[in-house]
Amino acid sequence: MTPMAIDLSIITKVREATGAGIVEVKKALEEARGNTENAMEILRKKGIAKAAKKAGERVTREGIIECYTHAGGRVGVLVELLCETDFVARNEEFKALAHDLALHIAATDPLYLSPDSVSPEAVEKERTIATEEFAGSGKPKEVVAKIVEGKLAMWYGEVCLISQPFVKDEEVTIAELIARASAKMGEKIEVKRFCRFAIGTPDACVVC
Questions:
Q1: Domain count along the chain
Q2: Could you give the CA distance from residue 164 to residue 28 in angstroms, rounded to a whole number?
């Protein structure tokens, strides 16, 4: 099925109502064919809306730092995964989540933690590049604007950890993976920062 164009005002409305991320909201709206109520129900069933609402009310003071090496020690990752209590931090499923995130970061080399952490300058540069593709195309401005926002969402999915498809299951984004774990464990869970080292590169990628 071809993804349908979703108006940004509708995406904003569902985000404000559920607290879910833009990528998850867009996917839910596409699945619901633009119906906001159905989209919110989809998010609730996935545990994303519930976890997102709780996230704004809770504080993460516990967690672990996971270390992972790959490719014969040529790639290394440190990821700080936070939760609310030491009880969850010692949970084997929580530790497995941290390991999977470190493995994912080693494989995909994300440049940013989330779309919110991308600098306005970088976003504007990508928006300009996408817009220039349609120079002289004759397409209406509002149509071009929607296409450009779609391209930006795809770009976020490539460079932002939270927006990327999980390497072990590309039907699930990292944000959804964390939200499901949060709903299951009953606590707010979040990636605070990560660092990726690779032999032969001048600097490590550190994201805070």
A1: 3
A2: 16
Question: The domain spanning residue 22 has which CATH number?
Answer: 1.10.8.10
Q: Give φ, ψ of 166 to 5 degrees.
A: -65, 130
Q: What is the pLDDT of residues 104-151, one digit of tens each?
A: 999 999 999 998 888 889 889 988 888 888 777 777 878 878 888 888
| 77 and 43 belong to one structural domain | no
Per residue in 40-63, pLDDT (tens digit) is 888 877 776 656 555 555 678 899
Q: Is the pTM of this model over 0.85?
A: no
Strand partners, 65: 80
Give the orientation angle of helix 22-31 with respect to helix 141-159, to 10 degrees.
120
| Residue numbers of the domain that contains 64 | 60-118+160-208
